[in-house]
From TrEMBL:
<dbReference type="InterPro" id="IPR000701">
    <property type="entry name" value="SuccDH_FuR_B_TM-su"/>
</dbReference>
<feature type="transmembrane region" description="Helical">
    <location>
        <begin position="18"/>
        <end position="40"/>
    </location>
</feature>
<dbReference type="InterPro" id="IPR034804">
    <property type="entry name" value="SQR/QFR_C/D"/>
</dbReference>
<keyword id="KW-0408">Iron</keyword>
<keyword id="KW-1133">Transmembrane helix</keyword>
<keyword id="KW-0812">Transmembrane</keyword>
<keyword id="KW-0472">Membrane</keyword>
<protein>
    <submittedName>
        <fullName>Succinate dehydrogenase cytochrome b subunit</fullName>
    </submittedName>
</protein>
<feature type="transmembrane region" description="Helical">
    <location>
        <begin position="116"/>
        <end position="137"/>
    </location>
</feature>
<dbReference type="InterPro" id="IPR011138">
    <property type="entry name" value="Cytochrome_b-558"/>
</dbReference>
<feature type="transmembrane region" description="Helical">
    <location>
        <begin position="204"/>
        <end position="227"/>
    </location>
</feature>
<keyword id="KW-0479">Metal-binding</keyword>
<feature type="transmembrane region" description="Helical">
    <location>
        <begin position="72"/>
        <end position="95"/>
    </location>
</feature>
<dbReference type="Pfam" id="PF01127">
    <property type="entry name" value="Sdh_cyt"/>
</dbReference>
<keyword id="KW-0349">Heme</keyword>
<feature type="transmembrane region" description="Helical">
    <location>
        <begin position="165"/>
        <end position="183"/>
    </location>
</feature>
Length: 233
């Protein structure tokens, strides 16, 4: 009986609003760090094909011989997948709870802010999820290959963003902009959840969240647009 009660209490604790917000904050930090690292990796395209392909190969052999070939990448993929699933689950549950608790026909500034957050995080998250699937099939597994499949990561990138595939570039850019809005609101929310958002720090935290979101967004947009407009290729 005691074990059953303890298990129930633990289950309720893990499903509490505080626990879910904390889970979103922590997984959000993991995803932001990944985005920054991934953005840096993408910028290697400006160093040429050899440098970009070498960087891609280095990730696959990182940790050898302690890890098998692509061992590091698989660890990273598992961590990222777990983070995404936990992040999405917490977001859906919190959104559902907020919707049930929200009074009807209630409009003011806070309601408008909630609407902005809802569209930014919920619909932006859906677009990002769809883009992530496309991006993996395009750049990782090579199953989708606009411009032609290639064993070279550099060539796959260059092939996929040629001017005739403007719709691929457009989809990429819209998705990256959605990531930027998601980051802007997400970083602010994460800092609030982790207790850093005090009245005296609000302006500084707002600047930090905006700068990180802008850097990541611009950093990801530079690569495909440079290929499309003939600056890389």
């Amino acid at each position: 009986m005691a074990n059953s009660t303890l298990t129930k209490q633990r289950s309720e604790a893990f499903r509490s609003t505080v626990a879910l917000k904390s889970a979103m904050a922590v997984t959000g930090v993991i995803l932001v760090l990944f985005l920054i690292a991934h953005m840096y990796g993408n910028l290697n395209v400006f160093a040429g094909q050899e440098a970009f392909d070498s960087y891609s190969h280095h990730l696959r052999v990182l940790g050898q011989p302690m890890l098998p070939y692509e061992g590091f990448l698989w660890i990273m993929r598992v961590v990222l997948l777990a983070s995404i699933l936990i992040h999405a689950y917490a977001a859906v549950v919190l959104w559902s709870r907020a919707k049930r608790a929200r009074p009807t026909r209630y409009q003011n500034k806070k309601a408008l802010q909630r609407t902005y957050a809802s569209y930014t995080m919920r619909w932006g998250g859906v677009l990002i999820a769809l883009f992530a699937i496309f991006h993996i099939l395009h750049m990782t597994t090579n199953d989708i290959a606009p411009g032609g499949a290639s064993d070279s990561p550099y060539q796959r990138l260059v092939n996929g963003f040629q001017p005739e595939f403007w719709y691929v570039t457009l989809f990429y850019c819209l998705s990256v902009i959605a990531v930027g809005f998601h980051l802007r609101h997400g970083i602010w929310s994460a800092l609030t959840t982790l207790g850093a958002n005090r009245a005296t720090r609000q302006r500084a935290l707002n600047i930090i969240a905006t700068v990180i979101a802008l850097v990541v967004t611009i950093g990801f947009l530079i690569t495909p647009l440079s290929v499309t407009f003939g600056l890389v290729g």
